[in-house]
Design goal:
The strands form 2 sheets. The chain has an 8-stranded mixed sheet, with helices on one face. With about 350 residues, the chain is of the alpha/beta class. The chain contains 10 helices and 14 strands. The mean pLDDT is about 95. Helix 5 runs antiparallel to helix 10 and helix 8 packs across helix 10. The radius of gyration is 21 Å and the shape is globular. A hairpin with a 2-residue loop joins strand 11 and strand 12. It folds into 2 domains: about 110 residues, 3-Layer(aba) Sandwich (Rossmann fold), CATH 3.40.50.720; about 180 residues, Dihydrodipicolinate Reductase, domain 2.
Length: about 350
């Protein structure tokens, strides 16, 4: 493709606007229309505007569709766009359940188009550096991983659409924990067993879980633990990757709210001879990141795939299906309290 990619964005809430800005910064996309059911989300934009996504897809000449809607509407829009011959970039999660994801997989396989899902955390600086470090073999083989990802909610948390089971399909695990689960899959591969507890511990007014705890094991004996929480009153992102010869610690994450603190990667190699003079306190190496380029890197990758510059490696339908299957296993194994 030797011209700009004609693109529409369906859903102009917070995520749609983030994607809009990233498309503009990239320069390889021409945003020909935007769509949202709310006039307030369309105000201030010069592009052609629609309230109905079907009318939008029928009325505009385009190459690609960016889907940033509620979870419940993602499968129908994605499938319709693929069937019309358009490439699609969709926000996570890939629907509300495995059935939704399988529906999109079938549409993709018969379309010959590109479908990419927005597992954005893979593109954060700390994650990119950690993956390179682990893959280098410097720290040996991965033994286990521990991940905590949590937020506090808001004053209006109980009335947010994310806690409406019909619109979202799940609670904090499907909304935010899915990112940590995707990262664990990214670093460790597939898991063979799951144990979990899923419950609503504090937010009694919501239909979905506010906490999920899970332990996974791979066929190679590696262990991973995950805590996804909407009762982490002090926002937290932490991922420890323990290897045979050292450890990588990811702490903090640069986000638009800046509420997860500074994004840092610290690694150290085991020092049983206490070369530092203190057993259990090996020399540490820390990288600090103050800017978030993840949105730009992710959109660049999508553009590279569309133009044939490289194959799709991240956010594939297989990535999406696997993480949704894992989430359903976590729910099935750990549901308490009737949710």
């Amino acid at each position: 493709m030797d011209r700009k990619v004609k693109t529409v964005i369906i859903g102009m809430g917070r995520m749609g606007r983030l994607r809009y800005d990233a498309l503009k910064r990239h320069g390889g996309f021409e945003i020909v229309a935007i769509c949202d059911t709310r006039d307030s989300n369309l105000d201030g934009f010069a592009e052609r505007k629609f309230h109905d996504w079907q009318e939008c897809l029928e009325s505009v000449e385009l190459d690609a569709v960016i889907v940033c809607t509620y979870n419940a509407f993602i499968p129908e829009i994605v499938c319709s766009a693929l069937k019309r011959g358009y490439h699609v970039f969709s926000e996570k999660p890939p629907g509300r359940n495995v059935a939704d994801t399988l529906t999109m997989k079938a549409a993709l396989e018969s379309s010959g188009r590109i479908l990419k899902f927005g597992f954005n955390h893979r593109y954060h600086n700390s994650i990119i550096e950690a993956k390179a470090l682990v893959d280098s073999g410097l720290l040996g083989d991965i033994i286990c991983a521990r991940g905590v990802y949590g937020k506090a909610g808001t004053v209006n948390f109980e009335s947010e659409w994310r806690n409406d089971a019909e619109l979202s399909g799940g609670g904090i695990l499907l909304d935010q924990g899915i990112h940590m689960l995707d990262l664990m899959h990214y670093f460790l591969g597939e898991f063979s067993s799951v144990k979990s507890v899923v419950d609503t511990l504090a937010w009694s007014g919501i239909q979905v879980e506010d906490n999920a705890f899970a332990i996974f094991e791979t066929d190679r004996g590696q262990i991973a633990s995950l805590h996804s929480s909407a009762t982490q009153w002090h926002h937290r992102f932490n991922l420890d990757i323990v290897c045979t010869n050292g450890c990588v610690v990811l702490d903090g994450l640069i986000t638009s709210t800046r509420s997860y603190g500074e994004e840092r990667l610290t690694y150290y190699r085991k020092d049983l001879n206490a070369k530092t003079g203190k057993l259990g306190r090996p020399s540490e190496h820390t990288l600090c990141f103050t800017e978030d380029f993840s949105w730009d890197i992710e959109i660049k990758e999508f553009h590279d795939v569309l133009t044939g510059a490289k194959p799709l490696r991240n956010g594939t339908i297989d990535d999406a299906l696997y993480v949704m299957q894992m989430i359903e296993q976590i729910y099935a194994a750990g549901r308490r309290g009737g949710n």
